[in-house]
Specification:
The complex is a heterotrimer of chains A (334), B (320) and C (321). Chain B has 320 residues and is mainly α. Chain B contains 13 helices and two strands, in the order ααααββααααααααα. With 321 residues, chain C is an all-alpha fold. The chains are: A alpha/beta (334), B mainly alpha (320), C mainly alpha (321). Chains A and C meet through helix 2, helix 3, helix 5 and helix 6 of A and helix 1, helix 11 and helix 12 of C.
Chain lengths: 334, 320, 321
């Protein structure tokens, strides 16, 4: 895929924090949901952000469209730093970066018809007249594989997969360049998941879209993504092109994630590697490398020093003191 | 825990202060020269006293200084005089409060017990005429104007049947026993209060009965009645406690209309007569008292509620 | 990795077309269908509607029949029902039936206007608290709690007994009875909005986190847009229930206040004020005391049946997912 030099969307040490308790004297405790995350999304690419729940991936995704306040760091669109206080640039970001949410029912207002739901971004941005809205919605419905009559039905009259298509149509309405999909498949039946995945793939080709796919489903990630960034407790601990990540994961956490994917049908079932213990609470993360209590290869250094992000190879970054240097032959892992 | 309670107490006190000012200001809008009447209610006041009081309480004084002066008097224990009964306010207020409490507390206890019983019955006998009648009765209770019901009962039992007095307080030399004076107002109050809690108890019980853990208990082989009383009841009581706690506040002022109809010399009737009779000292103090008591009742209900429901933790505590 | 769709585009369409229902079914039409089936609620609604229509038609009836509820005729005092006066005459010789109709108009309109007022204020306060959170929420909620903890009936009596001329209201307005009418509506609204406010606040707080709201926010929608288009329509069903029930509550309050003599003042009349002298008349003419109270009872119980039916019909747990 051709790449221009400037990423269409990028962040530099982006951090998001939430205030937990407000006392009369001021906010005391913070939850640092996202810590110094730097990613780059190039045009036409799909970047997957993976991790367990609590890793901060949703908080990060929401910060990209302005739903969460950026505490520290920068967000850049087409190379330009976006400052939420500068309305012009921010509204351009809002049009060009759209989101598809996880819950296909929760993301559609049950009181509104499909027509109104899909046309809402157009109404808010004020770009289309009523008549134009109708034609645009009809066109979008066709693009996502739904009949035009769906426009005057209501969300509860559709199945989960169909609702997700409606959500995708809504995201496409303002002709965005980037779509952020936050767990778009998790709420769907497995048989429907592949349909929606394929729809997303074909739309990407048709419109030249760039995707950020937030997911904990490694199989979907392998299917859709070009690059992967792995998050743990708010930090990106590894990022690499998808094949490299799946064949030679360098971070023990990534390895554990990959091993936990159940493999069905390909004959052998590999034993999932289970991680020790539960994920610690993000409010009080462990010192040093936050993964050390559950890491099978943790050493003394890991308990004391936070590992710095560095390059393992040209496109493979890692934040670990003792990355795994195992090269696996193709086909043995996934 | 104690800091929370102290916070609440302080808040309640502040609220009381604000309310007293609001009420004081409202009284000032009453017909006539209320502060004047307030200050001059004491029949033994001399002309000198009156002119001095006028200096402090006169209409040309700004409302805030009048209020502060009244507050000072209160803090010194001087609650003023009741104009219509020519006695110090406190002498009038306390008996009235007692009378109201006799009525409202009994009605409260009775209606709560009966409501829980009826509500449970209705939930158990779902779909039968028993449930329908209880429902109808509950609806009627919340829809009927209390004072009209009182009038009806007076008509039936006092006028037509002559078995009960038409009203008034128990008197030692009357033809009726003390209890007789008590029955009709009590019954009226109970009927009016019972509807809401009954419906609430019924729906709470219905919810609980259908929950999974009840089926588990059945499956474990516990007999029906044991299941009911031990498990369902306890859990249904939590939302019922809420509504009971809400009704708590009505203990002091909810019986005004009924007291008036039956001539029962309680707080509600007293406040009404005080306002109508331009006896503003009395009205002020009665209202303050009622407000303070409601705040105390709400506070106690809050505390009791937190003890009952283990799921609620007080602010500042971490549930592990 | 580049696993382009194995289904062709038309196959997707066929699959996606499966199970799209034929009829257009909005959530509201489903709820309405549920309501229609509730006999008690429909009965209540019909009774209420009939009473409202009849009492509002009373001026017309007066015009046609020539009778009204305010003309006194001391020769006809306490007359029993007759061909001309279907329900007889009251203590001042007035036609009881027409007096009931006119009183009904006053009582019902106070109930409706008061309920609407409570809803308006309650929604404003509740939505603001729930949407804007933080300081705004805290201040508004303290205020709401403050209002809830006031002893309502004594306070209402005071408010109803205030000398309006001290507030600068003209004497002629007071004498027309209109001042008393509007005062009741105002004070009932002032003290009655708290229930709606709590409801709306709770609904708003839960709606604000829903993903369809987030989606609109991500587009940059204004707060007004979100409140108007998403929050209020979704929060409105418990509000409708509360408004209906409030009407009954307000009518009971008004009748109590009017009975005590501090509510509706002559020349206006309401069902409650018709009962003011009822106690004295209980012995000789009990029906004069029974009719107005019975009307209140009937109306409020109809309202409560309707409100209860609305609550069941609008129960979000019955909505399709």
């Amino acid at each position: 895929m051709p790449r221009s030099n400037t990423p269409i969307l990028s962040t530099s040490e982006l951090s998001v924090r939430f205030a937990l308790r407000k006392t009369w004297l001021g906010n005391n405790q913070y939850l640092h949901a996202v810590q110094k995350v730097s990613i780059q999304l190039f045009e036409g690419e799909t970047l997957a952000i993976v991790g367990e729940s609590g890793s901060g991936k949703t908080s990060f995704a929401r910060a990209l469209i302005g739903l969460n306040a950026v505490w520290q760091g920068e967000l850049k669109y087409q190379g330009q730093t976006i400052d939420p206080l500068q309305n012009q640039a921010f509204s351009e970001l809002r049009r060009n970066v759209q989101m598809v949410f996880q819950d296909p029912f929760g993301s559609l207002d049950p009181r509104l018809s499909v027509q109104e739901i899909i046309a809402e971004p157009l109404q808010i941005h004020g770009t289309h007249s009523k008549a134009l809205q109708k034609t645009r919605v009809a066109d979008l419905l066709t693009q996502v594989g739904l009949p035009v009559e769906a426009a005057n039905r209501y969300p509860h009259q559709f199945s989960g997969g169909q609702r997700q298509r409606i959500a995708i149509a809504r995201a496409l309405a303002p002709q965005p360049k980037v779509i952020i999909a936050d767990e778009p498949l998790s709420a769907l039946d497995v048989s429907i998941q592949s349909q929606v995945m394929n729809l997303m793939k074909s739309l990407q080709t048709t419109h030249g879209l760039s995707y950020i796919l937030v997911s904990h489903d490694m199989a979907a990630v392998h299917h859709l993504a070009d690059r992967v960034a792995v998050m743990y407790l708010g930090r990106v601990i590894e990022s690499a092109p998808v094949d490299q990540l799946f064949e030679s994961p360098a971070h023990p956490y990534t390895l554990a994630l990959l091993q936990s994917v159940p493999k069905i049908g390909k004959g052998k079932r590999t034993v999932g590697g289970s991680l020790k213990g539960d994920q610690p609470s993000p409010i009080n993360p462990p010192k040093g490398c936050t993964f050390h209590p559950r890491c099978p290869v943790a050493q003394e250094k890991c308990k004391l020093e936070v590992p710095i992000d560095r390059n393992l190879s040209t496109e493979h970054r890692i934040a670990c003191h003792f990355p795994i240097q195992v090269v696996r032959s193709a086909g043995a892992t996934v | 825990m104690t800091s929370y309670l102290l916070q609440r107490l302080f808040g309640a006190f502040l609220v009381l202060l604000i309310k007293s000012f609001v009420i004081f200001a409202l009284i000032g809008l009453m017909p006539g020269d209320p502060i004047d009447l307030l200050a001059n209610a004491n029949p033994e006041a001399t002309a000198q006293d009156i002119s001095k009081l006028r200096e402090i309480y006169g209409v040309d004084q700004p409302i805030t200084s009048r209020y502060v002066a009244w507050l000072k008097g209160i803090s010194e224990g001087d609650f003023g005089f009741s104009r219509i009964s020519h006695r110090p306010v406190m002498e009038v207020v306390f008996p009235a409060l007692g009378n109201t409490l006799i009525l409202t507390a009994s009605a409260f206890v009775l209606s709560t017990i009966i409501a829980i019983f009826l509500g449970t019955m209705a939930a158990l006998k779902r779909g039968t005429w028993i449930e329908r009648s209880i429902n109808l009765f509950a609806f009627a209770g919340i829809s009927v104007p209390g004072f009209w019901l009182g009038l009806l009962l007076i008509y039936i039992f006092a006028v037509k049947l002559g078995v009960l007095p038409a009203g008034g307080m128990p008197s030692p030399d009357g033809p009726y026993s003390a209890m007789a004076y008590f029955i009709l107002p009590l019954v009226t109050l109970v009927i009016v209060e019972i509807g809401g809690p009954t419906r609430y108890a019924r729906s709470a019980m219905l919810e609980v009965l259908h929950q999974d853990f009840i089926r588990t208990a059945h499956a474990k082989g516990l007999t029906s009645s044991r299941v009911l009383w031990v498990h369902a009841f306890r859990n249904a009581m939590i939302p019922v406690t809420t509504i009971v706690a809400l009704g708590f506040g009505h203990l002091f002022s909810g019986a005004t209309l009924i007291e008036t109809i039956f001539g029962w010399r309680g707080m509600g009737r007293l406040i009404y007569e005080a306002i109508m009779g331009n006896d503003y000292n009395l009205a002020l103090v009665c209202l303050m008292m009622t407000t303070a008591l409601i705040l105390v009742a709400n506070f106690l209900a809050d505390v009791a509620y937190t003890f009952l429901d283990p799921r609620i933790s007080l602010v500042g505590e971490k549930k592990q | 990795m580049s696993d382009i769709a194995s289904h062709s585009h038309s196959n997707q369409e066929i699959v996606a077309m499966e199970a799209i229902q034929e009829k257009v079914n909005s959530i509201w039409s489903l709820r309405f269908a549920r309501l229609i089936k509730d006999k008690a609620a429909i009965t209540g609604a019909l009774i209420l509607l009939t009473l409202i229509i009849i009492s509002y038609l009373s001026p017309l009836l007066t015009y046609i029949v020539g009778l009204d509820g305010s003309t006194t005729d001391l020769l006809k005092r306490f007359d029993p029902p007759s061909a001309e006066h279907w329900l007889g005459n009251d203590e001042a010789g007035r036609d009881v039936l027409f007096r009931l109709l006119e009183g009904g108009k006053t009582s019902l309109s106070i109930g409706i206007l008061g309920a609407l007022g409570c809803t308006l204020i309650g929604t404003l306060i509740g939505a603001s608290a729930g949407y804007f959170r933080g300081q705004v929420d805290m201040i508004l909620m303290r205020f709401t709690d403050f209002m809830i903890s006031l002893p309502s009936l004594p306070l209402l009596i005071i408010l109803a007994a205030i000398d309006l001329s001290k507030l600068g209201v003209s004497q002629s307005f007071i004498n027309s009875g209109a001042a008393g009418y509007w005062r009741i509506i105002i004070i009932v609204t002032l003290l009655g909005w708290t229930g709606v406010a709590r409801l709306v606040r709770a609904s708003t707080m839960s709606l604000v986190e829903r993903e369809f709201v987030l989606s609109a926010r991500a587009q940059g929608a204004s707060s007004f847009w979100i409140l108007w288009k998403h929050i209020l329509p979704n929060a409105i069903s418990p509000v409708i229930v509360a408004t209906t029930l409030a009407m009954g509550r307000i009518m009971l309050t008004e009748s109590g206040l009017s009975f005590l003599g501090v509510g509706i003042q002559p020349p206006l009349t309401s069902w409650g004020s018709m009962l003011t002298n009822a106690q004295e008349m209980m012995v000789s003419n009990p029906e004069l005391a029974i009719y107005p109270g019975a009307m209140i009872f009937l109306t409020v119980i109809a309202i409560n049946f309707l409100g209860d039916g609305l609550q069941s019909a609008f129960d979000p747990r019955s909505d399709p997912r």
